[in-house]
Amino acid sequence: MATHHKLIIGNCMEMKEIPDGSVHLVVTSPPYFNAPFDYKNLFKSYGQFLGVLRKVAKEAFRVLADGRIFVLNIDDMLVNGDKFPIVADATKIFLEAGFRYRDRIIWKKPDGYLRISRRSGVILQNPYPMYFYPDNLLESIIIFQKGKFDYKSIPKEIREKSKIDKKEFQDKKWFMTLWEMNNVMPGSPLEKDIAAFPEELPYRIIKLFSYVGETVLDPFVGSGTTMKVARQLGRNSIGIEIKKSLVPIIKKKLGFDEQKTLSKNEDTFEIIEREKGWIK
Ligand SMILES: C[S@@+](CC[C@H](N)C(=O)[O-])C[C@H]1O[C@@H](n2cnc3c(N)ncnc32)[C@H](O)[C@@H]1O
Predict the structure, then answer these.
(1) Domain range for residue 167?
(2) Residues 183-209, buried b or exposed e (16+ Cβ, 10 A)?
(3) What is the CB neighbour count within 10 angstroms for residue 115?
(4) Which of 58, 184, 228, 277 is the 20 to 30 Å CA partner of 110?
(5) pLDDT 10s per residue in the chain (280 long)?
(6) Ligand 1 centre from 10 Cα, in Å?
(7) Which of 229, 241, 272 to mutate to test the pocket of ligand 1 (most atoms within 8 A of CB)?
(8) Is any atom of ligand 1 closer than 6 Å to the C-beta of 225?
């Protein structure tokens, strides 16, 4: 079955191109509030950051079909010595938008990731009480749901085509609230300066929360990881990205650049650039 992939270049605080109830799953990772390395001073205030989340939650609630899932990869952030409770605030915002709180998974990165963080060095230089600032190698994956899912609404054939591999589920320990997954290496060519999540994250979520032929949305699509995995798993995708400069990276990642096409040639790709209308 051919799949369709749509990239919208614009701000995801509105999703006017996407009809009500037409999306079956959202997987996304917003820019972390003024993260020192990746998004320094991107937002004027914490309030502005939460305002963006509020608008996205509201639009996502509109475009999601009943019973469907929004997965938010996010974490608390330390900025200039203050820790911002982003997970707690985001959870509240999504509840206020009408979602049910379904679950929280903790993503643990490999221990070697700490080399990037090194806050704990403070106590090694000052081995006394009150100098404790732990290194963080966790992120949260919070799962929200729009109402309740009607399991009978899916035809038997689609259910079977979307079956989860029980061996993979068990061997990779998907059943726990702790997911150990590698992070994307800093300096990976396609994800440079993007703070991409590893393919494993949307892979698990798409398999667990959508059926073959359905539509997956990532409103902060970055390098296009969610769209790529959606395509590989036989789902349609919609990505929204504010930075037009990422278009070639996304096309390349999905295999829709000129030189390279994946084997599934009948899949289609379109770009909508707001203001200018269609660019391809
Ligand atoms: C953390 S990155 C997402 C990375 C993505 N998960 C990946 O694997 O490549 C967040 C992305 O959201 C984009 N962005 C930030 N604000 C946005 C907005 N209001 N609307 C759409 N995209 C936005 C940023 O340019 C950045 O590429």
Answers:
(1) 4-278
(2) bbeeeeeebeebbbbbbbbbbbbbbeb
(3) 8
(4) 228
(5) 899 999 999 999 999 999 999 999 999 999 988 766 566 667 889 999 999 999 999 999 999 999 999 999 999 988 888 899 999 999 999 999 999 999 999 999 998 776 556 677 888 899 999 999 888 889 999 999 999 999 999 999 999 999 999 999 999 999 999 999 999 877 787 887 788 999 999 999 999 999 999 999 999 999 999 999 999 999 999 999 999 999 999 999 999 986 555 554 699 999 999 876 544 3
(6) 11
(7) 241
(8) yes
Q: Which atom of ligand 1 is nearest to the CA of 225?
A: 8
Atom of ligand 1 nearest to the CA of 246: 27
Report which secondary-structure segment, H or E, holds 57.
Answer: helix 46-63
The Cα-based distances of 264 to 232, 238, 258, 260 in angstroms read: 9, 18, 14, 11
Q: How many domains does the chain have?
A: 1
Is this prediction's pTM over 0.85?
A: yes
- Looking up residue 200, the CATH number of its domain turns out to be 3.40.50.150
